[in-house]
């Protein structure tokens, strides 16, 4: 049952990220409302409306057809224009910033809901239009249904105004980085909280895994998530320990060894374990915080490329990276999951020194000739060195990256080199 729930959750998470999820859902809702109104009209709801508010009811069938036809045509035009704007946003973000940003922009709920409101209203008005006959009298026209169609169309106009405002904000790079930063901090904070809860329980050292039995992945994809409690329950029943050899976010190829166990497992147990591992074809920050570092780094690199040459955006990106690294330093590199003091699962993690190296390696290549951006990188490393850390290895990694950065930078002005060297020396001595 737990495995079934995990699969349902995984399927829902994947489906929710699709651009057509909310529009399809709201369109179905519009169809259901149209059917409900057909039943309500058969019960005489419009006759009661005429008696209370006669001015709100259309009295002529031709007028009703004209109103609904105008609403449908106008809403289709709005929907096409809005969808074109979304495609333009995605194209511009991909070309100017990074193609990795597309999944996050596509899954923007506001855009999806607005498109869904358009589509739901169009479907409602179409089915309401079917029930209108020009020869009918005002007492038999679906007056209340027509009124609702007009109200929904007016709501769509308000949604369109909000859409124009939101689309103009979404294309701004600061707002894009804000969204990436918020998702990453939420993910990191949830991981750190779980580590705090189990920190005192990790008493026994996890055994070495060199001679353990290995098992291969039945499918390929990005390793996104793991149902920890389900696998711990399996380990407790089988009295075993597991080691997952790949970190989250890594692309796993089929038939690659990704799982080790301290005892030989039967086929059913192996399938049960892999059923609780989520392999997806796309990457999402909600499941892998390291993706946020990659995306923000790519924004900075693209900004410093010769074709763009935008140091201001690169400096802003480094500011976001600084905060994310400071938060990452609160997380340990253990990757061990335990229960009641007994470790059952160990998962390979992206160590802090490796994450810092991957980011700095890209930034060094494109930023070493710009004095202002290079100083910002040195300031970032100095700020990180002042943060309280769980491990001394974090501080050693920062010092190492600072020394490598000093060797890589190259300026035409001796004054710039001298200023950067002084800043770096003050950090190394602290």
TrEMBL record:
Keywords: Membrane, Transmembrane, Transmembrane helix
Regions that span the bilayer: 20-40, 64-90, 111-132, 144-164
Superkingdom of origin organism: Bacteria
Alphabetical list of Pfam families matching this protein: DUF2254
The protein's name: DUF2254 domain-containing protein
Organism: Marixanthomonas spongiae
